[in-house]
Amino acid sequence: MSDKNIERISIVLAGNPNSGKTTIFNNITGSKQHVGNYPGVTVEKKEGEATYNGTKLLCIDLPGTYSLTARSLDEVVARNVIINEHPDLIVNVLDASNLERNLYLTAQLMELGRPMVLVLNMIDIAEEMGIQIDAEKLSAQFNAPVVVANGRNNVGTTEILIAIAEASKTANIPTGSINFGTELENKIAELLPLVEANERITYAKRWVAAKLIEGDTDIVEKISAVPGGSKIVEKAIAIRGTTDLDEIESSFQEARHHFAIEVFNNTVTETHKFASSKSDKIDALLTHRFLGLPIFAAVMWLLFNFVITIGAYPQDWLEQGFGLLSDWVRIVVPNGQLQSLLVDGVIGGVGAVLSFLPLIVLLFLGIAFLEDTGYMARAAFLMDRIMRGFGLHGKSFIPLLLGFGCSVPAIMGSRILDNPRDRMVTILVTPFMSCSAKLPVYTLLAAAFWPPEQGGTVLFCVYFASIILACIMGIIFRKTLFAGETDPFVMEMPPYHAPTMKAVFMHMWERAVLYVKKAGTFILAASILVWFLVSYPENVEYSQDFDGARDQITQIFDQKSDQIMMAMGAISNEDKEKVTALVEKITATAEKHKAEIADETVVQAESEETNAEGENSLPSENPTADAIAAADEPLDTAAFIKDTNAMHIPTAFDSIKSQDAKQFNVAWTIYQNEQVRDELIKVVDEHQRSEKVSQSYAAQFGKAIEPIIEPLGFNWRIGVGLIAAMAAKEVLISTLGTIYSIEADEDNNGSLQQLLQQDPNFSPLVAVALMAFVLVYPPCLSALAVIKRETNSWKWLAFVFCYENVFAYGVALLIFQIGSAMGF
Amino acid sequence: MTFKNMSEMKPGDRGTIKKINGTGNIKHRLIDMGVVPGTVIQIIKYAPLGDPIEIKVKNFNLSLRKSEAATIDVEVI
Lengths: 824, 77
Hints:
The complex is a heterodimer. By secondary structure, chain A is an alpha/beta fold. In chain A, 64% of the residues lie in helices and 7% in strands. Chain A is built from 36 helices and ten strands. Chain A starts with 6 loop residues before the first strand and ends with a helix. By secondary structure, chain B is of the alpha+beta class. Chain B is built from two helices and six strands; from the N terminus they run E-E-H-E-E-E-H-E. Chain B has helices at 24-32, 66-69; strands at 2-5, 14-20, 40-46, 53-57, 60-64, 72-76. Chain B is globular and about 30 Å long.
């Protein structure tokens, strides 16, 4: 480190959930934040930096907890940071309007014997409620500075920084001590000398002694690992004697509460204990006996429409942007391998993913809003009776709802469930909640095979089915693998408050960044891999001479052009040159104004059908041979030559036409002739490409598994897509896009939707089977990785992977077979 | 003096917690959240589907299932 002169202070923020701890953290650190994980566990670690008066503050936002027992992972993580990383200072954020319960955690932080700063947050709400806190007395009780703050309005931030700077200099250890009562105090006194004698124990000695008597599993483990520690643990067990562990733990808890109550009574002078607050009035409506559930349904409906309807606009803009970028790359980068990699691999893949970013941003905006207002807890309150029926917990609703955004935070969010059984069931059914990466797959298929007005219904059915599946599997899991006692539901109902935009946006930003990071690295790699698999091997053996076929067609049409010129009187070389120049101009103009011309000619398209091979005709055995045969048909000049004055010519050509109306007539006819030629050459190109793709590595692989997926109605393309989408669901689209866009011609960059419609192997029934398969089969690799870490077991990971694949196969098989039998 | 278990109380009823009969995680979680003997609580409401219950304790609102409330003995005020 070069900047040794700069003083550094490491602080941790501790506090109850809903104490406004994260708001204080945001106020202190601003945007200098980093979200990661604590090593070995999946508890999210938020770190930030701030500089105050030349002093650098390194700040960790601990998980919000009510207590510091070994009963919950969050609590163990929070206290381990404090006792192992020796931060200079604990900043304990307290909800001033709810001080009595908040002081219970403060009492436990005090026991850890580290310097503290107490922040009385939400002081405005406390004052409104008639609560008056004597900050000086409170400070004296803990021998720690007390700062008054209102984090939502960024009031008190400077004062907090000043207090931190001062407290880190004095480094006062809290002096207060909890009286655990004669019986427990005697036991502690008996054990304490042994703990104090062991120099290897670096934690607060009295706390260690108390925790060992209490039988705290984590501390017992830690002390046992210290040389000479196992003797102390044995002694603790001996001292505890026959006292019931459950009883002794409760006694410790109650003593800590009594301490907190005492401090509370000494410092808080006035309270209106059961006054009905504004929050209670809102709650009376939102959890109303009759209105509560309809309001809940309306809120969920709003959330969904907010995400999907509004998200569609920026999504569209991004798609167009990436389209322009692809066009630009095609111009700048010469035709070939690199262009193909950039356009089809990189831009195609990342573009597909990023264009769904708006959906994710809006979803997390909505979720952050629900969490911040306090409605999320009410959702659990309203839903618990129902969720319990399906072997889940009211709180399971929250991760399951998150699951509609992304399985990764959803699976991680299941940590709010303390009981491992409840958590496991929730983790196992979370993947059924269609994540937002699956949504594009559904929307694509719905748009391709159903009229726009039915798209919403199709999506609704998919989501409805997913919830039904989750319910059924929840019951099955609860009855079989996880039979037994349920987790306590006991949950705080935080007061309602208007969310601060800053907090909501920071939460949203955090999630968006996590998604993009995943998209940017993981999915880019997957896209390039898929591009490689689809584009290689480079040299394949073709069934026929495609170059020769193209030359043949070109020759025939050159002859036809001569024929036309002859028939129309352009005989001299000068005339011919003029006409050729005009044709070039027309072609260039046509290319430039493609979109407008297409719009203008749509109406006429049917009446002016040329004799070109129809694109939508049934697939032929040998399209190239057919194309040559079509080219060979003699030109009926009389029928082909039309007077341009009598027909509609797109306005884009007006300026060319006005130069020389007579020769324009000839040139236009030749141009039409060349259009027919290009159509036929395209048929040959497509034939060649499809031969190339069907010999690619991807196809070899897809074809290898085709017999397995054929009963589901899936062809090798879908097989390849599904395998690639193991990496992440959104890859399914980019893979299909890659496969199809490489098959398609440059001039035929129709959207993937149209390409799917044109694929004879696809049908609405196949689309339903595919949606069902995508719905059920394992979430992305990241989600699988999180499952591994949350369950901390390869066995569970293997179980999840297998059961979801088998289940997906079964569901898709049923749908396709029954659907086929019914004649769909 | 009337003793009741919490699940028998009606919205609006108040009382002092006397004893928590449960064991394990449920009991300890209740205590961590401030549901300790001697604390005054008030029943706020039942969820629309009849369960869970919302109570006021130590100036904040807590929700718990009826089965959990049934483990708490309350002296009704």
